[in-house]
Amino acid sequence: MLSKRVIPCLDVRNGKLTKGVKFAGNVDIGDPVETARMYYEQGADEIVFYDITASSEGRGIMLDVVERVAAQIFIPFSVGGGISTVEDMRAVLVAGAEKISVNSAAVKNPDIISQGAQAFGSQCVVVGMDVKKVPVSETIPSGYEVVIHGGRKAMGLCALDWAKTVEALGAGEICLNSIDADGTKDGYELTLTRLVAENVGIPVIASGGAGNPDHMADALTQGKAQAALIASIVHYGEYTLPGIKEHLTARGIKVRSVW
Amino acid sequence: MLAILDYKAGNQTSVRRALDHLGIPCRITSDPAVIAAASGIIFPGVGAAGQAMDELTQTGLDAVIKAQVDAGKPLLGICVGCQILLDYSPENDTKALGIVSGECAMFNRSLTEEDGVPIRVPHMGWNRVKPLRDCEILRGIEPEAEFYFVHSYYPVPAPEFVLAETFYGIDFCSVHGRPGLWAVQFHPEKSGRPGLTLLANFNAYCREAAHAQ
Questions:
Q1: How far is A14 from chain B (nearest CA, A)?
Q2: What would the mean pLDDT of A13-38 be, rounded to a whole number?
Q3: Contact with chain A for residue B126, Cβ under 8 A
Q4: Known catalytic residues of B?
Q5: Which CATH number fits the domain that encloses residue B40?
Q6: Of the candidates A97, A84, A26, which has an alpha carbon nearest to the alpha carbon of residue A56?
Q7: Which residues of A are known to be catalytic?
Q8: Do B148 and A75 touch (CB under 8 A)?
Q9: Which residues of A touch B126 (CB under 8 A)?
Q10: Which residues are bridge partners to A146 per DSSP?
Q11: Contact indicator for B84, B96 with CB cutoff of 8 Å
């Protein structure tokens, strides 16, 4: 049986690790390569890097980070942030990432998903979705709307429709982030997670709101997600990956227990 | 020195990084002389079977692989490299190398996991590998260890070649072959310590085999 995945997410700016709360007030908290290696050794099933640098200079620094990570950790990892062309994707994959993640760029130009899937295979293409709860309307029948630019810009796009669209375009996975839950530590947005997970055939990674291992267990059971993304609860040492996995196992969830 | 077959199959660099980390000398190559001089061959692969076979036949590497295996050179196939050692894959209706008798099949989406939930295709993530018989490359690896899989098709070799199985809706063959000729459906280069152990085991076998000759 396939294991549920525990995925630490590292936000990187100018080659340094940061973690923001609700996309504001980022502070440098360490070296992404060292941190990735530590999580690899502690049993992370995958690692997500999100490059919040916007400049082209920052992109070069990120590729160097990717190369150094690839030489030291032997589990899959993905890189997102600022990827908007097939060439951007290729550079990151050649540097050693398994997967690339597109978010705002895919909303603005959905063809990037099919182009990436065609060039590198669906398994390489993760679509990140930032989603906000809104009143149910004709355009947003699910009550969940896709937003971009770190949650600042609403797109008039229904999250459920968009999830089905990205699957049809060839996305291999969806990383589903609730803007409302992100940074709160009150738990994942389970209604949203379940809604998307039940309506697509590709894996869904729950993101935003993890405050403790029980929240993760909820996302993987009630939320029906295949993986749970975590950040601050491990970055600040509140919980450890082995401890989280023990807890999930005790809750009857199959996770990788030997690494 | 291990030869990593270069046929634009995608993951050869990841395999090289893992071998570099283990301190195992290797070369990514399509040169028949380098392949012949190697103590063993790693046959990687990502993507579609049809494309992979086209590339092999166009470069003549298909004949090189067959001749080397016939001469007793140890070989490890990975993912698509595992599938196209067989006779046939329905993916792109591909006539494959025919080194190990058998075919490939696609996961049926109506299958369910142990908890009754329908499987998602591709099979992507970590799963266990249960050995059915002794297999040198799996030695020293705990039975609870998991490996990283990404695939929609799986190998169905003749029963005598099935070395280990994995459950995903059905028990499918995840390791096949015989001593000196192995194929794994998962990615050892992306499977953490157990994967690195498997690669080191393969290299140890190759060194012994080369020494014995």
A1: 25
A2: 72
A3: yes
A4: 79, 187, 189
A5: 3.40.50.880
A6: A84
A7: 11, 130
A8: yes
A9: 2-3, 5, 45, 256
A10: A131
A11: yes
Do B150 and A40 lie within an 8 Å CB cutoff? no
Q: CA B32, B38, B39 angle in degrees (round to 5)?
A: 145
**Helix, strand or coil, per DSSP, at residue B58:** helix
B125 and A203: CB-CB below 8 Å? yes
Chain A residues lying within 8 Å of B193, measured CB to CB: 74, 259
Which residue's structure tokens are 């070649």? B161
CA A239 to mean position of chain CA atoms: 19
- Domain that includes residue B45, residue range: 2-212
- List chain A domain ranges: 5-250
CB atoms under 10 Å from CB of B179, counted, come to: 13
Q: Report whether B65 contacts B100 (CB < 8 A).
A: no
Q: Report how far apart, in Å, the C-alpha atoms of A104 and of each of A93, A155, B180 are.
A: 19, 10, 49
CB A180 within 8 A of CB A193: no
- C-alpha B189, offset from chain centre: 11
The answer to whether the bond into B44 is cis (omega within 30° of 0) is no
Tokens 């020195």 sit on residue:
B1
* ipTM over 0.90 threshold: yes
pLDDT digits (tens, 9 = 90+) for B164-193: 999 999 999 999 999 999 999 999 999 999
| Helix-helix angle A159-169:A190-199, to 10 degrees | 40
- Count Cβ neighbours within 10 Å for each residue of B41-58 and write b for 16 or more, e otherwise: bbbbbbbbbbbbbebbee
Please indicate if any CB of chain A lies within 8 Å of the CB of B127: yes
* Superfamily classification of domain A5-250: Aldolase class I (3.20.20.70)
User: Residue B110 and residue A217: Cα distance in Å, rounded?
Assistant: 26
Rounded distance between C-alpha atoms, residue A214 and residue B4, angstroms: 44
Tokens of A125: 């293409």
Sign of CA dihedral B29, B33, B38, B40: positive
Q: CB B46 to CB A121 under 8 A?
A: yes
Phi (first) and psi of residue A21, to 5 degrees = -110, 125
Query: What total of structural domains would you count in chain B?
Result: 1
pLDDT above 90: percentage of residues in chain A: 81
| pLDDT tens, position by position, A31-43 | 899 999 999 999 9
* SS3 state of residue B8: coil
